[in-house]
């Protein structure tokens, strides 16, 4: 951790060296602020601190801290964490909690895994897509998702992000309207299938 040089100071950090701050990026030392990859961030799903070393989180930190230092009454709400990568032609994306992380926070964790294809079979270059959705059975909310595929299949994570962020109840999203055209998707998308299985 890049904060090793601060271990001899009075800054409060967790066991891994991430600095503890409030939602205005104030540390335990007056007039000392911290933000970005070196701080803990509130995961808004269960309102618990997580370490999220992500460029998107750090960029938002900068905006909010700039507003705060300029005298605006502002605070950073937190995040859910989103990571995406490409390995040769394949794509992997995740958001929210993994199943293992969710189990540490709640006992009612379930998951569904659905395998499908990214578009209709009569259009060339059909590729497989796998979607895993992790949900809290008691609270009836999605707490995480992971997608593996090709041909921009990873972008199917986008409609799930606001669903997780707003804690939308799973009973309301089974028939989520998604764009359809044979080169891009099926009329009943693999994501719709996954959301339906949650409600079975």
Give an account of the 3D structure.
The chain is of the alpha+beta class and 200 residues long. It folds into 2 domains: 4-70, FAD/NAD(P)-binding domain, CATH 3.50.50; 83-197, Enolase-like, domain 1 (2-Layer Sandwich). Helix content is 19%, strand content 23%. It has 4 helices and 7 strands, in the order E-E-H-E-E-H-E-E-E-H-H. The protein has a 5-stranded antiparallel beta sheet. The longest helix has 15 residues, at 55-69. It is elongated. It starts with 40 loop residues before the first strand and ends with a helix.
| Unreliable stretches covering 5 or more consecutive residues | none
Number of helices: 4
Instruction: Tell me how many strands there are.
Output: 7
- How many distinct folded domains? 2
Largest sheet: 5 strands, antiparallel
Structural class: alpha+beta
Roughly what fraction of the amino acids lie in strands? 15-25%
CATH class of the largest domain: Alpha Beta
User: End-to-end distance, in Å?
Assistant: 44 Å
Categorize the overall geometry: elongated
What is this structure, in a nutshell?
Its cofactor is FAD. This protein has helices spanning 55-69, 99-105, 160-166, 190-198; strands at 41-43, 48-50, 82-87, 90-96, 109-117, 128-136, 141-149. The protein is α+β, with helices and mostly antiparallel strands.
